[in-house]
Design a protein that fits this description.
single chain
């Protein structure tokens, strides 16, 4: 044997042991990473299933429901689409403020920022929106901020109260018209009572 080979033979078992340890550590790291990845995939699948159930629920609500992300409409149920006369949903992807009458935009924009910034801020307000055909609807909007698919979002229900408000106005006008004859009758009745 040559004198140079002798130290190599002595270091060989130590190097093999060191490599074996590194191999075990690498195997454990890879196994932990694979387990972590499987756990992440399972969590993501559960989240997607939960969000899908939530979307189905939103689709069944009697009011219009919209989801807004970064100021744009990203979801609307069929009720909302029919309400504004656009069942094809061509408004999706557009700025939600485009539907709001210009004079109502500042208040809606301010409320949207508050809803978007905080989970705790929710509330309702009346606003006027314009359909693609140009019809103006009076709506009640109830909204709040949430995280959806990892993005800050505002979920809002939208109820058309145009007909309700028109009927209330007509009832008040009718009551006012009926009130005048009643006031005359009361005055006549009072004068008859005084003369008796």
């Amino acid at each position: 044997t040559s004198p140079d080979r002798h130290p190599i033979h002595r270091r060989g078992p130590a190097a093999n042991a060191e490599l074996g340890g590194a191999k075990r550590q690498l195997s454990e790291t890879v196994a932990a990473q694979v387990a972590s990845q499987k756990q992440q995939e399972l969590s993501l699948l559960r989240l997607q299933e939960s969000e899908e159930r939530y979307r189905r629920l939103l689709g069944r609500i009697q009011d219009g429901v919209v989801i807004i992300q970064h100021g744009r409409l990203v979801y609307a149920n069929e009720v909302f689409a029919r309400m504004i006369g656009d069942p094809e949903g061509s408004f999706l992807g557009h700025e939600f403020l485009d539907l709001v009458l210009p004079e109502d935009r500042p208040e809606i924009a301010e409320r949207y920022r508050a809803w978007e910034e905080s989970r705790g801020v929710s509330g309702s307000l009346e606003a006027r929106i314009r359909t693609p055909e140009g019809t103006t609807l009076l709506v009640v909007v109830r909204a709040g901020g949430v995280d959806l698919q990892g993005k800050r979002s505002v979920i809002a229900t939208v109820r058309d109260i145009t007909l309700q408000r028109r009927m209330e106005r007509e009832i008040r006008q009718h009551a006012d018209r009926l009130g005048a004859p009643n006031e005359i009758a009361d005055a006549v009745n009072e004068s008859l009572t005084i003369e008796d």
